[in-house]
Amino acid sequence: MTRKNRQAARVIGIDLGTTNSLVSHFQAGVPHILANELGEELTPSVVAVAADGQVLVGRAARDRLITEPGSGCAFFKRDMGTSARYHFGGREWSPVTCSAAILAEMKRIASLRLGTDVTQAVITVPAYFHDAQRQATVEAAKIAGLKVERIINEPTAAALAHGYRNPDQETRLLVFDIGGGTFDVTLLEIFDGVVEVKSTAGESRLGGEDYTDALCQWLESKHDWKPDPRQQGLWRQRVETAKRLLASRESVEIDIDGSTVALQRTDFADATAAITARLRPVITRCLRDAGISASDLDDVLLVGGASRMPVIRDFIIENLSRLSSSKVDPDRVVALGAAIQAGLCASDDAVSDLVLTDVCPHTLGVEMAKPGVDGRPIPGFFAPIIDRNTTVPTSRSRLFHTMHPDQNIIEVQVFQGEARLTRDNQAIGQITVHGVRQQPGQQRPGEVEIRFSYDMNGILEVEVTVLSSGRKKTLVIEQRPGCLSQAEIDEAVLRLQPLKFHPRDLLPNRARLERAARVYLELVGPAREHLNAVTDAFESALESQDALLIKQSAAVLDTFLRPFFEHEREADPIRHEEP
Ligand code: AMP
User: Fold this and answer.
1) Domain 3-206+278-359 architecture
2) So what's the pLDDT on residue 423?
3) Which of 79, 198, 450, 464 is such that its CA lies 20 to 30 A from the CA of 158?
């Protein structure tokens, strides 16, 4: 084993699932899942306290919960990042302490299997987890004695596992991830060892458990019967089993109030149609953000236990006109990807050619005020600066001005979210800037440029420049506190520096506009109009700071301009390189 391989073995991957969790590691170029002491790769994400006070985790906890529903807790991943509290075993538990118990168990399994104390981990979370949920995950890891090397999105991990198995395939892939409690879709492109996330969308409260709940309710109402509250756990377990059996059978039998009734696959589809209908808008949003249609997809990768349900497969055929060709087990693919990421974190030689790019899952912006009808400012509006699904690292800026000539202070409040009003988004930081009022002889009074620079580790640097004086003030928002040391944060901020140019100021773009201005002088009539239109389109793309838009409109402008410079190119091919 090389030194690097040895390091990789010590960073483990953890898929902290709503229903089950898995632990994995990367060794000798291969990702592996580590089985628990029962020989099982899936450990139920359930915590309970036994009658003698012992804390139980996994299968033992799940079994205890069936017979003694108040003795523990499951599905707490759904409450991560909230102030939810549970009471069992004579004490109070939070989603973080429950998750910490699972993570500690994962650490224990890995340490046992690898024969060494494991202290570093890559943990996967749903792509649509917002930062409070990610921070809660990091906190849970800390309690469990694990340093989080990287939090990665579950679908990205799945794509990594898929890309690693099929290194020569160029694929536009939709990862359809439906677990017990969450639903995410992510669009990725895989080429030459690069896994590039294009867009992601999701619903944090939609998953296999909702299907089980809907089936329970449908059966109860159809048979006009309710289980005794003490039997609720057993009843739900029976319905869960029926749901799973329907993945491989057309019909199953279920015991209701002492009599056996038949349940068809079509009954299940009817009982859960309202839940299935909630999948479509998420897919539409993801495809729209990436600017592609369903027919452009090469493959669909199914992830999560609930993707085994025939209603999901039918939905995919109906809405995406294709079926997954992937042979990777939907329960294991995320953990395998986490192991590969662990290999990347430990700089394992076997993954040195692999590159992973990601997008920022939520829109980032600031609060602004708008003038009301009486001229008085109305605060509380969200002004986006980095749109969701922008490839990271990225840097974007926007100009703002004061509402009143005497205003000397601007409070920049930073938010993330998709709502029009900031009260519906999440506040993540604040910075106060003084000296904005006009001083004698100064230009551009009352104007500030707010620049956001965001990187793969969730470091957001906010830089506010007072345009009249050139004075700058910066704030670094660590979106996942505890993940990085101060030196790593400083390094990340430094790496963002080269990105901090407005595209309109970059030399190739300026040169392109100069050329367009030169050709404009030579033209008249429709040709001149045409050049005007393509130049306008390029200029507005520059203002949008959208890399893809800039690339596309630059290509159109270059095609128009090229014939006018052919003769110069022939005369001196080096000096007249295209911008
Ligand atoms: P996960 O969070 O990925 O472990 O997914 C767990 C969810 O998948 C639970 O809601 C299970 O009920 C569901 N699930 C697992 N296996 C099956 C199956 N064969 N058929 C239907 N649902 C399943």
Assistant:
1) 2-Layer Sandwich (3.30)
2) 93
3) 79
